[in-house]
Amino acid sequence: MTLLFLGAVILMTDPVKRIIDWQISLSPYALLRKLWLLPPLEVFIMVYMFNYTNVDAFIAGTDAKMKIEEVGPYVYQEVLSNHNVTLNEANNTITYTPRREYIFVRDRSVGDPKVDRIRAPNIPYMGVSTQAAKLSMFAALGLSAVTKRLNAQPMLEISVHDYMWGYEDHLVHLASKFVPSYINFASFGIMEKLFREGNESNVFNMHLPERKDSHGVNLPDSPRAYSLHSINGERGFTRWGYDEATNGTRCNRFWGSHDATLFPRDMNEEDTFYIYRRTFCRLLQMKFNRTRTYKGQDAFEYTMDPNVFDSELENVNSSCFCKNNHCLKRGMGSVGPCYYNMPLAITYPHFMYADPSLLAPFDGLNPDESRFSSAVLLQPQLGVPLHAHVRLQANLAVGNIKFDSTMEPFENMVLPLLWVDLNIENLPVPLQLLVHGIKYIFPLVQGIIVACLLLAGFYQLSTAFILCFWSPPVGVLLKSEQGEKRASILNGLTTLGASFHKSAQDSMQPEVQKLLPPETSYKLSEV
Question: Residue 245: its pLDDT value, please?
Fold first, then answer.
């Protein structure tokens, strides 16, 4: 009876699910928390540079198009760790500061970035020249005189490493002296600004798994598990006009998005989620595409729409990107407000899905969906990323040029700087085993234990029932009595035989002769 009761209790309470729910949470001492503090996922950033090979001929007017050569990949491993963790019971959130380090991986790279050299756009100079067009004539002339005095050139010949992670620029150094509160750096690197800047100062606040009622049902209006609540106390992009009073729009609100490290459990084919990273200066929408099997795991594939970078005044979910009612061309997403208002924009690599006019001034760009599309594979029950490729290109959108003859050949061009592929190639073996255990092994073991307990309990119960309420037939009783009598007779005969055998043995023993005393012997002789 005890076994039956124990099996029923396990079946009704489902302890494996309760243990999994606890361990797959960010509670103290939970397994997921230990993994989340220092994620074992291997995230790589593959960087492809653009080398401009005919700069002099283009500036001189000899060549009508800029010739671009793609160089790469230069691969960096992103190592994430989360610090200053605080649980907030009041609003069911967790506060933390993520830190990311970038380690060069030589054996995956095409060369040594400190040795390889390219010719690429001078981002600070071109950015300032574009901004000068919005200034008064006297201010624009003064800025032009300063750049000439500094001998600033539109194109740089520079090492790949310096272009990515920082080089000393005279114009940037000068700006840091005049406006230190705005330009607080003396060197400039495009990867430094896109990925590393502010790395240790952003404080994230994230929703924990949904609270449930006594029946295990999610409470109404609960935010999605592991979605962002705020960053540095803000729930949206103030640079894109987010208003706390109205909670903004999907265009400028990052509340409810995900930081691409944790995703909600029990996803379905109707789910759509948004990825936030400061690099994008916006949210990237991921939509369900199809169901797949990846290395033996069930997976949902989510992809980015071709129009993910578009902005339209008529669309409330993208109109905030149109500064001063000016929208960029199709396929371009402005990121300038996040980077000191430099005219930077992101697109798909090689201007895939973008306005064809962006490709027209260049030779060497070849849009290819099989190479440049973005997708994320998630294990739907656990929300674990199994495989991912998020690809985007950083560009410099040169605008109108005033009073600067060296910049005139590049007027109103969108110059590709580099493109990156943020990817997760494989789930580490410990995580693979954990996923298999949670999804298959642990529930199977629990099912086997429950089945054994129930079968053993039913066997005990049925045996006790039979012994209490079942009587054998009369024939069986008679046979049983006859058998008992026969056994009694046999026992008696056996006992009698044993006694007889013992008596016989006693009688066959020789008598012991004894000598008579002398007096007895004398009396016998007289007779």
Answer: 86
